[in-house]
Amino acid sequence: MGDKPIWEQIGSSFVQHYYQVFDTDRTQLGSIYTGESCLTWEGQQFQGKAAIVEKLCSLPFTKIAHSITAQDHQPTPDSCILSMVVGQLKADDDQVLGFHQTFLLKSYSNAWVCTNEIFRLALHNL
Amino acid sequence: MGDKPIWEQIGSSFVQHYYQVFDTDRTQLGSIYTGESCLTWEGQQFQGKAAIVEKLCSLPFTKIAHSITAQDHQPTPDSCILSMVVGQLKADDDQVLGFHQTFLLKSYSNAWVCTNEIFRLALHNL
Question: Which helix (DSSP H) or strand (DSSP E) does residue B107 occupy?
Fold first, then answer.
């Protein structure tokens, strides 16, 4: 990773960590959020670490596996990192579904946290 | 729109404007960017209004039509607006393709500009 810009290293490390924790024990995701973080999950809005983790833990599946197709990272004018992930997920025995997820990361006291997160399944009226 | 939060009004107005201009005359998109804006288009990075508009204008199609499936907007800690769009597009006579696009909007001198933009087609190895 030595040649990659720092925002790409931080963004891709975050993304790897997020899905690893999500897929093994999503009750442990609280440490990446703050009390002000915003999550929009399939159009539903949640704010704050507690509300976000409660939502993620209440999702109606036991097993989940994410597979990343593409991830892009950018630095922002306010020294944040913007990340967009396109991928596929398999929940329990359901069919594989495409998803898209956006994260905004910010550094507080030398730790990167997720201040904003948006998730959508790739469902279109074809 | 009266009951919607201000960030949602601004975000959805921007998104509507962006695709309207993109689909009619994308040479006119320059006014939404600054010299520092970042675009990542299918993994390729561009910085600055001129480079971004040159890229968008060089895309190899004559006619393009976007259709939005879902859009989500959030306020960020630095008074920006984060928007994620999921939709479908039809370029010339090609098949309809899914896409995802993320925008970060910031207010400079009372005008909202796009500081960060990421675009990906929804192509997976199924």
Answer: strand B97-108
Task: Output the six-digit token pair for A18.
Answer: 């997020």
* Contacting residues of A for B71, CB less than 8 Å apart: none
B104, A118: Cβ pair inside 8 Å? no
What ipTM was predicted for this assembly?
Answer: 0.94
Per-residue model confidence (pLDDT) at position B3 = 83
Higher-pLDDT residue of B62, A3: B62
| Domain layout of chain B by residue ranges | 6-121
> CA B83, CA B78: separation in Å to the nearest integer?
14
Q: HEC profile for A53-103? A: HHHHHHCCCCCEEEEEEEEEEEECCCCCEEEEEEEEEEECCCCCEEEEEEE
Q: Which of A69, A75, A115 sits opposite B76 (nearest CB)?
A: A115
CA–centroid distance for B31 within its chain: 13
- The answer to whether the beta carbons of residues A26 and A56 sit under 8 Å apart is yes
How far is it, in rounded angstroms, from Cα B24 to Cα A90? 38
CATH 3.10.450.50 matches A6-119: yes
Instruction: Note whether A91 contacts B: Cβ–Cβ < 8 A.
Output: no
| pLDDT confidence bin for A26, thresholds 50/70/90 | very high
The CATH class for the domain spanning B6-121 reads alpha beta
